């Protein structure tokens, strides 16, 4: 996929711009589960020659002898997967993640035993839940680049 894709961490300390992306995927391996704190990791390959860190840089953690994981050291957002010269970006960190629908599942044999039925569960909602979520004021960085973040106080 070619175009301009931007994203970054939750607090805005690390931002990126990618202009050439490969295959979006989800990975079920235990390391991705731990790195994302979730059921799987959603990643898309990036061409390093067309990847720019526009604010800050991710910190790296060696999750194995062959793989490093990039994250924001201020807010903890998972950002990257590095295996040698190969780099993947966390789909959830993009400003428009809906554009990056996963095309393949990696390490499918390591998926959690109930994952295939996850979205058969009923959606929970109530007036109390709706009121609570409507009252939440987000402190996270907006899904676009800004000249200054956080904004200066008047």
CATH superfamily: glutathione-dependent formaldehyde- activating enzyme (gfa)
CATH architecture: Alpha-Beta Complex
Counted up, domains total 1
Overall shape: globular
The CATH class, by name, is Alpha Beta
Residue stretches low in confidence (pLDDT < 50, at least 5 long) are none
Mean pLDDT, to the nearest integer, reads: 92
Q: Any idea of the CATH topology?
A: glutathione-dependent formaldehyde- activating enzyme (gfa)
Q: Helix- and strand-based class?
A: mainly beta
Written overview of the protein:
- Pfam families: GFA.
- It comes from Ciceribacter naphthalenivorans.
- By secondary structure, this protein is mostly beta strands.
- It has one domain (2-135): glutathione-dependent formaldehyde- activating enzyme (gfa) (Alpha-Beta Complex).
- It has helices at residues 30-36, 127-135, and strands at 2-8, 15-27, 41-46, 51-55, 59-62, 68-71, 78-83, 86-90, 104-106.
- The protein is globular.
- The chain starts with a strand and ends in a 19-residue tail after the last helix.
- 26% of the residues are buried.
- The model has no long low-confidence stretch (mean pLDDT 92).
């Amino acid at each position: 996929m070619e175009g301009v894709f931007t994203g970054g961490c939750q607090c805005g300390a690390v931002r990126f711009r990618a202009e050439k992306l490969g295959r979006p995927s989800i990975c079920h391996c235990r390391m991705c589960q731990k790195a994302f704190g979730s059921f799987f990791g959603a990643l898309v390959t990036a061409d390093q020659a067309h990847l720019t860190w526009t604010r800050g840089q991710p910190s790296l953690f060696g999750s194995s002898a062959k793989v490093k994981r990039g994250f924001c050291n201020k807010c903890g957002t998972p950002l990257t997967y590095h295996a040698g010269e190969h780099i993947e970006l966390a789909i959830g960190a993009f400003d428009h993640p809906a554009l990056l629908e996963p095309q393949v599942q990696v390490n499918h044999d390591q998926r959690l035993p109930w994952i295939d039925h996850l979205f058969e569960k009923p959606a929970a909602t109530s007036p109390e839940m709706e009121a609570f979520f409507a009252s939440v004021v987000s402190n996270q960085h907006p899904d676009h680049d800004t000249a200054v973040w956080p904004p200066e106080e008047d």
